[in-house]
Amino acid sequence: MDGRTFRNAMGKFATGVTVVTTKSGEDVHGMTANAFMSVSMDPQLICVSVGHNATMHNKIKDSGKFAVSILSDAQQDMSNYFAGQVKEKKDIPFEWIHEYPVISDSLVNIMCTVYDAHPAGDHTLYIGEVQDIAVKDEGEPLTFFGGKYCRLNREIEVE
Hints:
The longest helix is centred in the middle third of the chain and has 9 residues, at 55-63. The protein has three helices and twelve strands; from the N terminus they run αβββββαβαββββββ. A seven-stranded antiparallel beta sheet has the order 3-2-6-9-10-5-4. Strands 1-11-12 form a three-stranded antiparallel beta sheet, with no helix packed on it. The chain is an alpha+beta fold and 159 residues long. The relative contact order is 0.23. It has a single domain (3-150), classed as Electron Transport, Fmn-binding Protein, Chain A (Pnp Oxidase, Chain A, Roll). InterPro entries: Flavin_Rdtase-like_dom, NADH-dep_flavin_reductase, Split_barrel_FMN-bd. Keywords: Oxidoreductase. GO terms for molecular function: FMN binding; riboflavin reductase (NADPH) activity.
């Protein structure tokens, strides 16, 4: 199968949208990622998948820590910016939580130290041990499906 078929098939899995951030030296770096998941409750671990060619790959490796901001449906501009779809340079007003740069007004900010890293194909799975979490009580998630941003449809009732 070709790469486009694989990409289209993976796009049929609806995901939330996150921005992964880290501070390396004096610079803050961020990237949009939907390859994010929880891994373990004890210890509390999460995972992000970062391409070997992405600038973020070595920045996380060098810093030994990263944050994940789960975006709200009002933050599509942040997703686009950190996905490289906005060419103009912006001065992003990062919020700082325990020396971790995070995206302000996100639904959740998760601060992690690197627990482990596993090369897998052309990506590395960075396992983060959660050091702290900030949760916003309001808002809906920014979601992605079939190569497009989506909003939740709340018509399904849970029994």
